[in-house]
Known about the structure:
By secondary structure, the protein is mainly α. Helix content is 76%, strand content 0%. It has 2 domains: 6-358, Amino acid/polyamine transporter I (Up-down Bundle), CATH 1.20.1740; 363-437, no CATH class.
Amino acid sequence: MTRLKASDLFALGFMTFALFLGAGNIIFPPGAGMAAGEQVWISALGFLVTGVGLPLLTIIALARVGGGMARLTAPLGRLAGSAFAVAVYLTVGPLFATPRTATVSFEMGIAPFTGTGGTPLLVYSLLYFAVVLYLALNPGQLIDRIGKVITPVLLVALLVLGGAALLLPAGDIGPATGAYQAAPFAQGFLQGYLTMDALGALVFGIVIATAIRDRGISEPGLVTRYSVVAALIAALGLSLVYLSLFYLGATSHGIAGEALNGVQILTTYVHHTFGKAGGLLLAVVITLACLTTAVGLLAACGEFFSELCSLPYRPVVLVFGVFSLLVSNQGLDQLISVSVPVLVGLYPLAIVLVGLCLLDRLWLSPRRVFVPVMAVALLFGLVDAIGAAGFEALVPGFFAHLPLAAQSLGWLVPVLITLAGAALLDRLQGRPQLQPA
């Protein structure tokens, strides 16, 4: 029986870490840390729940069912499952997340040297997506190219940045501001949404499994085990990065108090601490982090849509790569403003789906439980998305008075009540009778 060597297993874990560590993972923690101030660690804990815990549980759920999202959504029925999968893949693929990797890496790593005009962004994005496509067109070599080559360089740069944040803070921890004063955990929880990692985990699961099988591992139990180990390595790395970036933001009030986002906070900090060399350090961290994530997302979308539409993998990847290139030239603020309502709408569905799958052994008929619970999650996800898009007037007032509605978690209690009722009915109806052949 073929097994992975220790070096290959660590490379797989590093690859998984690099796939997740992208644009949102770098730009949102410093901003949240600055806003959280003295509540930084409580807020960071909430961020870790959605930014690390949910992706880890998602990879475990995918590994347990032994396949991609199709098996995860099977109890919903083929049509509903496919619709959800398509929405997730498009969101973390060519519509939002993949273009965002190029835009963030440009604004943080390249724009300080070239300016923020449209021409430098276009030239950079052309070169960026050329490299992304080169790597994504050969998914069987991701462990060697990302896990063993790119990620070690990224880790060294991150150790320098994270070590500086902890050992050379720019100042004392500042005061909490805004909603972080009253609900720091909930705000951190919601900021974790913006990393897109729980949605990314739904699509990265198939990339990780493919990378393992390309190493000659065919036994399902080993594929599951190695996927979980890789996810644990990635979760540890991500946690350390997030905590250091939260602390960096919380201690940067004195030098970046007027910053509008995490990009400006990070840029100000590295120039304050490292001088001109800080720009180069930040460029390396951001470019490599975003590049590896873009490769994983593009490869995952290529595999999913090539199978769904019965098309060759490479043409699908090329089309999505070119489309992502075009979208990336719309600018970072535009991408973030459009993506937030979509993420707020999809995250309740993703959280509920993963939870139901992890508890699948409790259900006599998974479909009896999945369908009503996911339907309620969909309803509240749509309501939250409408509100996040700025159309609160269209949302009935009833939704605003639900428990946790002020923290954008109004879906939680209705989903739990529906789950309890569906689980009870599932038990009362007993196991479905097998139809005679």
